[in-house]
Write a structure and sequence with these properties.
- Helices cover 79% and strands 0% of the residues.
- It is an all-alpha fold and 202 residues long.
- Helix 1 runs antiparallel to helix 7, helix 2 runs parallel beside helix 4 and helix 7 packs antiparallel against helix 8.
- The longest helix has 31 residues.
- The radius of gyration is 17 Å and the shape is globular.
């Protein structure tokens, strides 16, 4: 029973993450606008996923417990390029991508660096959610923000809580997923709230 639950959580997480950012990317392309999307949130999210992936690889954790990370990172990079494109200059994304690539190699130069980065990873990821929330609170308009993407993110956090408890039982990772679950639900609710406001206004 436990093996079946673990397998379901792992594979359903991968399946969801394969299309996690596609609703958001589609919404941006359809609207031809990045209105409502926080660039700070996107960059912080990328940084958080990068650190998380590097940490798991460094300590040799089972690939199925983090295989969604490179998939989501790739989609986030595409979304980042879309945001810069509709904000006027896609070339501005180059320095940010260069920093992320360099970080991949520097994170494991010393053990204390990757450990410290992982401890900060939860705060970085939480900051990305708050950046998106602040953007929504400021504009009171969900714009091109996809509620489906954020709700799928909440689902993957829930399944990763289960897989972490059943495999590595890493307390740092577990706390990260619990906090991310709560914040993803909060962002989803906020997106839906301001979407309803727009509909009523129209």
């Amino acid at each position: 029973m436990e093996a079946a639950l673990l397998s379901f959580c792992n594979w359903s997480t991968l399946a969801v993450c394969a299309a996690l950012k596609l609703p958001q990317i589609s919404a941006v392309l359809a609207a031809r606008s990045a209105r409502g999307i926080s660039l700070s949130s996107l960059l912080l999210e990328l940084a958080g996923f990068l650190v998380f992936l590097r940490y798991q690889c460094h300590y040799g954790y089972p690939p199925l417990t983090y295989l969604e990370c490179p998939i989501v990172i790739a989609q986030d990079v595409i979304l980042l390029l879309c945001v810069f494109h509709f904000n006027g200059n896609v070339k501005q994304a180059a320095p940010y991508i260069a920093v992320l690539v360099c970080s991949w190699f520097t994170l494991t130069l010393q053990k204390w660096i990757i450990d410290l980065a992982m401890n900060l990873c939860t705060f970085i990821s939480a900051a990305s959610k708050f950046a998106q929330l602040q953007c929504l609170w400021r504009t009171r308009d969900s714009g091109a923000v996809s509620a489906l993407t954020w709700s799928l993110s909440a689902y993957t956090c829930a399944t990763r809580i289960v897989t972490t408890l059943m495999t590595t039982n890493d307390f740092t990772i577990l706390i990260r997923f619990v906090i991310m679950l709560a914040l993803n639900i909060w962002v989803t609710a906020t997106v839906l709230r301001y979407r309803k406001t727009v509909i009523k206004t129209e």
